[in-house]
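Hey team,

Sharing the Succinylglutamate desuccinylase/aspartoacylase family protein run so nobody has to redo it. Sequence (364 residues) first:
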Amino acid sequence: MLSPAPGTQREIVSLHYGRPGGPKAYIQASLHGDELPGMLVAHHLRRQLDALDAAGQVTGEIVLVPMANPIGLSQFLLHAHLGRFELMSGENFNRHYPDQIEAVAQAVEPQLGQDAAANVAVLRRALKAAVEASHVDTELQSQRRTLLGLSCDADIVLDLHCDAQAVMHLYTETPCWPDCEPLARFLGARLTLLAQDSGDNPFDEACSQVWWKWNRHFAGRFPIPQACLSVTVELRGATDVTHELAAADARRILDFLRWRGLIAGDKPALPEAQGDARPLAGSMPIYAPRPGVLTFLKDVGAEVKAGDVLAEVIDPITAEVCELKSPVDGLFFARDFLRFANAGMRVAKVAGHEAVRTGKLLGA
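Structure output:
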């Protein structure tokens, strides 16, 4: 990575299993540096992948980045860990990944034909070369380039995150849903939120959207499949950092990779679905209109109706109670862990079944 100052140098460590040339999976943990469940899952993945690789059981290529954000991991202020935004620029570490789509399309068009697999190989090589050759000016930009360089040619990309307090849930692009649905089953996800280009180019979409955008660019002249399943995996809440959960999540990820053929062994049975897919545009943020002590009346995982009271904000001076109600029928899937709300603070999310919002769909 680009050094931000003399005497200072950060690095990203990637662990490589199997061999290049076949199907590839890329898994990274804690792109938001203060979201730690993914790091513990990566610890358990590493142990199991070490053993599987030593036994010759990794039949594809698997790349594991056990800590994807050394910048954010090191940011503390008054003992508080600030790993979501870079303090230099104020930018979210999971936004603004560079776009090489048009440049690559123009460069490789003479090499494309009617063989879809050959087209995928040509586009992957060109994309990886373009990412690795791209110019960067800052340490943050060089971190993004490094992560994209490791992941942009993968068939499967899993970006391990967490919410504040939440059920297991996923984010992916709508064209990825057919390939994501088995992953949701293996992980026991209660919810998968779907969008096509949610805004601000987060990491997962930077890996997956190249394919549907190339398909649109070439307008049927060349077969371009959706060659990358890229998913943000929200591993419940920020304090759900236990060996029991992490070991189970790692085992389920490996079961999915075995099901996809990257690990040898009998193909596991597909588990029963624990949830469903809903539009990200139907995920409704709940805001506190005034400040006060925040107390929740519903737990995450509850199915709620429009008008149900999810929480109260209590003014400690006036004793006024402000009820926060669900705007839609849906799954109450995430809430904040802070218990004092500022005016205008987003404190929870409910996933409805119908698309309601427009514009940029992700939070800050």
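The chain has eight helices and 19 strands.

Ping me if you want the raw files.
A.
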